[in-house]
Amino acid sequence: MKIKNQWPHLITIVLIAAALLVGNRFDARWAGGDGYQEHQIAIGPHIIRERGEVISSDEATYFTFGDAVIHIDENTEVKLIDGREGHETIQLIQGRVLVGGDIDITVREVTISSTEATSVVHYSWLDEIDVIFFDDTSSITTPELTLSATDLDATMIKMNTLTYDYTEHEFNLENSSAKNFYETVLD
Predict the structure, then answer these.
(1) pLDDT digit string, tens, across residues 45-97
(2) In the CATH scheme, what is the code of domain 42-186?
(3) What is the distance of C-alpha 140 from the center of its chain?
(4) Are 78 and 71 in contact, with CB atoms under 8 Å apart?
(5) Which of 39, 43, 94, 176 has the smallest set of CB atoms within 10 Å of its CB?
């Protein structure tokens, strides 16, 4: 068989592969995806943002994103990553958030999945996060481990976002430096 006679077949295979890759990238149904889904927007007092935009505030505020309510403390930056229904994800760049509802919070390679109420504090200059579980259904996933709130003996963990080392602690609202934030949000 001569290679000259095979060019039409090779071109057809390359075109089909390229079409499937493009279709997969855009989640097309014919390529095995769910089809296009509209991204939700974040709405709050003086806040209307779309996927990819950063929400920052010099004072505590809140916004809704999908079915979740996200409370952000002062000096906090949050980026909207994914707004498709059932895939809502935000990235905590720095600061403190308390989320209520079904949403994922990412910090570097760490993903915190909340279904009810979880608080995450990201100390970006220390490469650390504090995760406070207000329910038993939240979990933390890193490239090396997965922790469920039910696996822990405490209500809070402190984790290094580079090494994934963590320690368990009990959260004490009365001794928290953010006592006012939590009291305002949790009321």
Answers:
(1) 888 898 899 999 889 999 999 999 999 999 999 999 998 888 899 999 999 99
(2) 2.60.120.1440
(3) 11
(4) no
(5) 43
